[in-house]
Specification:
Length: 217
């Protein structure tokens, strides 16, 4: 058998499979095994805080009832809850979170995914996704305003014609301008995705007041 053409192809196929497994799974694992895993409390960067504070400005009553004030601790709390909601609602069935180096995906979804981006508590398990009925969400943060996301979650086809995404009215108390704690949390999580990149839309223009220089005040 192994001397026939089919046998050679079979052995070759097994060899390439083993090579792919080693190069794509084992090598990165050993390369980054010493990289510390970031806890949720360390993921509330300036870009995300801008969005979290914006939620408080847009819906002060709902925000106060849900989280009180826009502190880093409350942002981490909302971020972790948003992640749980994202998983529980099955968002990962239709949205991936992994930009591959093929088919010009970086032109559509941003920079190709890097191993270090997944070394944090919110990537356990990693939300690679199963298919792309909707766009990849790795770089979704900052692309749309919180107003847009509120309407999109409440009734997707209002802002995205023909979208197969279902409505999520239970994220709101009756209308898109009354997000609940769950609604605010899922928006926080979506705005976090890609917030660690320098290409994030608010990276240049926003710094917490305590971090600004005298010249900037």
């Amino acid at each position: 058998m192994f001397e026939s053409k089919a046998g050679v192809l079979f052995v070759g196929g097994l060899g390439f499979f083993f090579f792919a497994f080693v190069s794509n799974a084992l090598v990165p694992m050993f390369m980054y095994q010493e990289l510390p895993e970031q806890p949720v409390s360390e993921l509330t960067n300036a870009n995300l805080m801008y969005e979290f504070e914006d939620l408080e400005r847009r819906w002060p009553e709902q925000f106060q009832a849900a989280f009180g004030s826009a502190t880093k601790e409350k942002c981490a709390e909302a971020l972790e809850l948003g992640r749980q909601i994202y998983i529980g609602e099955g968002c990962w069935h239709c949205h991936s979170q992994f930009v591959r180096p093929v088919s010009n995906e970086s032109l559509r979804f941003g920079p190709v995914a890097k191993s270090e981006e997944f070394q944090n508590a919110l990537q356990r398990p990693v939300m690679f996704g199963t298919r792309r009925v909707g766009p990849d969400l790795s770089r979704e943060g900052g692309r749309h305003s919180n107003d847009w996301h509120a309407v999109h979650f409440f009734r997707p086809r209002t802002v995205s014609t023909g979208s197969p995404m279902p409505d999520y009215p239970w994220f709101f108390d009756g209308s898109a301008d009354k997000p609940t704690r769950r609604g605010l949390a899922i928006m926080t999580y979506v705005q976090w995705l890609g917030s660690w990149l320098e290409s994030y839309p608010y990276y240049e223009e926003y710094q917490p007041v305590g971090e600004r220089t005298e010249e900037e005040e």
